[in-house]
Amino acid sequence: MKRHLLSLVFIFLGCSLFAQGRLIHTGEIPGYVTLKCDFHSHTVFSDGEVWPTFRVREAVQDGLDAIALTDHLEYLPHKKYVKGEDNSAFAIAKNYTERRDLILIRGTEITRKMPPGHLNLLFLPDSITFEDTTFLAVIEKAVNEGAFVQWNHPGWKAQQPDGIARMMDIHHELIEKGWLHGIEIFNDGVFYPGVMEWCIDANLAITGNTDIHGTTAEVLSSSSDSHRAMTLVFARERNERELKEALFLGRTLVWYGDTLAGKIEYAAPFVSSCLKRTGAVYEDSSYNYYRIENLSDIPYYLTDGVNPDAPKSIELQPRAYIVVRIRKEGGQTLAYTVSNVKIGTGERLKIEL
Amino acid sequence: MKRHLLSLVFIFLGCSLFAQGRLIHTGEIPGYVTLKCDFHSHTVFSDGEVWPTFRVREAVQDGLDAIALTDHLEYLPHKKYVKGEDNSAFAIAKNYTERRDLILIRGTEITRKMPPGHLNLLFLPDSITFEDTTFLAVIEKAVNEGAFVQWNHPGWKAQQPDGIARMMDIHHELIEKGWLHGIEIFNDGVFYPGVMEWCIDANLAITGNTDIHGTTAEVLSSSSDSHRAMTLVFARERNERELKEALFLGRTLVWYGDTLAGKIEYAAPFVSSCLKRTGAVYEDSSYNYYRIENLSDIPYYLTDGVNPDAPKSIELQPRAYIVVRIRKEGGQTLAYTVSNVKIGTGERLKIEL
Amino acid sequence: MKRHLLSLVFIFLGCSLFAQGRLIHTGEIPGYVTLKCDFHSHTVFSDGEVWPTFRVREAVQDGLDAIALTDHLEYLPHKKYVKGEDNSAFAIAKNYTERRDLILIRGTEITRKMPPGHLNLLFLPDSITFEDTTFLAVIEKAVNEGAFVQWNHPGWKAQQPDGIARMMDIHHELIEKGWLHGIEIFNDGVFYPGVMEWCIDANLAITGNTDIHGTTAEVLSSSSDSHRAMTLVFARERNERELKEALFLGRTLVWYGDTLAGKIEYAAPFVSSCLKRTGAVYEDSSYNYYRIENLSDIPYYLTDGVNPDAPKSIELQPRAYIVVRIRKEGGQTLAYTVSNVKIGTGERLKIEL
Amino acid sequence: MKRHLLSLVFIFLGCSLFAQGRLIHTGEIPGYVTLKCDFHSHTVFSDGEVWPTFRVREAVQDGLDAIALTDHLEYLPHKKYVKGEDNSAFAIAKNYTERRDLILIRGTEITRKMPPGHLNLLFLPDSITFEDTTFLAVIEKAVNEGAFVQWNHPGWKAQQPDGIARMMDIHHELIEKGWLHGIEIFNDGVFYPGVMEWCIDANLAITGNTDIHGTTAEVLSSSSDSHRAMTLVFARERNERELKEALFLGRTLVWYGDTLAGKIEYAAPFVSSCLKRTGAVYEDSSYNYYRIENLSDIPYYLTDGVNPDAPKSIELQPRAYIVVRIRKEGGQTLAYTVSNVKIGTGERLKIEL
What we know:
Four copies of one chain form a homotetramer. Helix content of chain A is 21%, strand content 33%. By secondary structure, chain A is an alpha+beta fold. The first copy, chain A, folds into two domains: 30-262, TIM Barrel (Alpha-Beta Barrel); 274-339 and 346-352, Immunoglobulin-like, CATH 2.60.40. Chains in contact: A-B, A-C, A-D, B-C, B-D, C-D.
């Protein structure tokens, strides 16, 4: 019962090739704009397979507002052929991006054995270089320059054969120093349970990213997903400064496949903004009939309805409505568990329409 | 470069089968809601191939707000097997429809040789029957009961071998008597030039309908269209009374394939509500860059740009945006012909973004 | 990872509307042609929602070779409006069908409480009528006229609230008399475990059908399936006589969603005809590389590979190939369980490529 | 009325990512296998946007049998960052390709102003380098090493502002010397009339290629095409040696969008192998009915039927059939122009079914 978002479209305008961007309707939280972001991607400057300009055009077509180029700092398998400085991918893409109204974030991925594993440094200034490459020295220098530090794929099977994300001493140390600001709960098709709790406890941002090396079109063609995984950031305005501030304050949700994951304080108003219940549109002798609209591009699966006189479950497809009926003699509330919105390990959002 | 609207979706809720309706985003005219309507359809009660309930469910899935069942009054090829009264199809579908929040209009199609050809009587009361079946007697009775009279497919090849719509004496007579209220400019894949001018001159409603006999899914599968043809009616509220009033006042546009057709006074504000130009999002030494968003499910093809320092043409896909650039030294206006919005024979809407 | 078969296509040829039929590539069993059949469908003549001609056109577009119209014998909710004789739906559709090269089977559905439940009588002669409508009298008369008797949806929840198919005395009696020839293992989205064993034991045909009342397009739009459920019959030639003989001999498989179900003697050669392994196409110092092709429109999911030097599992999409590698020092066999081919309750086909 | 080929699919097998290749059914010419080829593509080693391995995986998913990497010899805009030798892209991709059963052709694009414009050298040996870079010296050296020389996009607007392909003295000279072996009749969305006649006169191969710099997925998403443009080569076996021989002998057709183009001696048997007419499947008093099958993934549009008692035109969708009728008293031939098969400027293939 999947619905596919629309495919990417290109057009020529005069002699320039401009990408046509998809307008994805997600929800909103009052007072904020929702920025659709991917904080983890690679280019040929480390082990990715595309040039930085392609990564930008792809992000526009995928409907993103912001993308970080985060080539590995230490892992450079193409170095026999591709010789950039740390800043090269960003420098190549910067002007190209601005002319497409995308926010481009300079980043890099610190690539170490576990522990500490891989961490992204985001919002690096153009000029930064890392001479002292010991792990903590790199982190410290970046943090001093204002970087946002994200722990990537904490249970990555290549580093944790059982696939279970575990906090180790070094991660606790980073948190204590204030040097860790976010953790990926989702990376390249894999969801990491436990991350939600760590982020809630330590007040970190929950993020979800593609870690794309090839193309997102290729990844989507091998799944039934209609959109690339993304971090939704709730910023006061659509610019890099506000995006960065919102990220440091942890105002995020993660959208991957049909699932949303994040803190209840953001999930609750976000989902409420997507779903609209009207007054009764019809009644017969036994029932009142109500129209429920899903205004967003995200499906919602409502289960475990608590009203015995109303449907037990409702599946709301993206941009669709349904009419449900409630027995007249019963209460007229519609309260459900939203089975595809995770707010904790094993916990799902509850809503009343 | 087509984009397909999402496919229809069904779900079971308890023991009832409710259709999930598509929320199509078209434009809006301030002060009105846009009702998506089809004023011409058939069931097994004349020469259609579906039961009235299917026609209703199909309309919900296709995203309509209102549908008229307009079985032929005189042409009843199934009568050996199907014996209804004039009101049967409507009676069967009425309750079924109300439980789905669709507006169901009772109608019938007067089916005569040309002239006068075929005409739909819409908004018939439940009780009406036609004993005197001479053409004018039928029309008069219906009009006296408040019916809206629509002239169908005025250049239908079965009745006009050259396919050219022509007003004949009887049609002029109907207009003079106030007994004709709308004309189909589009019916079942065919657009009829000339109808626009007649409707503007005589202050009639321009309509476009499917005249569906089989299923709309079958028709769409044989074309590259993403939606069924429909009449967009601009009503003060979403109910049958306001729909009827708006139709009598001619507040309509027709959407078929990638094309909109209708009077400029509705086309202009409607299209303006779909397209949004931001302030400059970027500038370099030579250019300012502007973001243009198409918020609707209708594509817009902008051609013949009058600013020599801006793109000559822009193609805006449904729910997509594009960034265009204008030379700084030139004027910053963006004025275009909208090549897929017809406001007269050979005339296209002009807009300034 | 679904792939959708191509959508239906229509075209006008002169003044006639001919449906364009889809050519579905399934597998083949040497000596037979594979006929794609649906032995259970309804029209407005009982409780269906479409006219018989639509049912035929739909079958052609869905790629079928044969369809049975099986309106209920006793359940006629439309009878206030639709008055046919038992043969009317068939009579209306017969010529229409022949001009489209489809095989049309006259049938009816005996519609009783459980036991015995619902049974289809297939291949009824045009002239048959049932005056004595006691259950066994109807069956006997039909059998005497050569009918194939199919027990429908044996665990239908409306008649078996726990959804479990159970043989009752009357079904055993039918089998003993030779008056039951097939059982639906799949009907309208539901698979009935247990049926496989009964059919193997009693030498009955295993069938799977849509029981379609609305349209198959509507059903498919609410699922991720790319094709309607069907019974594959292995006949010596493509005509009604051979189809009937093959059905009586139980030469069938059932294809629904991504799954095949049926007797191993048909499943094994059928699947083998779909999958082709070439000789090694490449080798390096450690591995031989083999190309595996899936020539059919059915996906195959190979799991539990027994060769430790070859892939544990392989997913073969419809009309696609993959290259797999086997360590040179290991055996070069590729033996798998085909997890989407059911040959018994809990049993899956095993193949060696 | 487009039908889309199936989307690309990926799967993981153990720890290796293998691309799943699409099996496209085109036609065949007796005695040959049809190899689906693209003889023009770029990587980051010149001005392309992807790494050589991606280009290979993409070709497999697109259903190709062979691909040439043809980075510019002289135009190296990435050279600040990417420093390969002439052979680097090929060397990187070679093993990766062989493990996927694709034929990888080493090539380069000589990139000069017009005349001579751009020419691809194909089937270069690994070791070749070009020290003397004057145009004719490069061509001569390559030809002496066995290269196939293809003139690319002969009417490219960047070099021929009117878009018209013109042979100039240098091209005549190349032909006289035997140093030109093929010309692109189609490149990156553009068809070049006139090329067909030159190739027929001089006995050159007609080719059609993508000249892809970004990704084919991106290009296809901006069109209604279901497949990438390709050259179909009729080789005695599926290997590089036979492919090369067939190309030198000019045994090719070009497939782009819905169109085939090439020499009649290949087009005629190829199209015949796709279309199958059966004997009469039905007859009534007036008509015989024949089934026409299109076994291929290419649509065929038959027009200008010469039999007045048969349909004037027939549209055969990919892998579909249709039933056509012919009046009994008329001749039973079905002879048409195939409007989407170009065999000369303004000439279309004629066939008799």
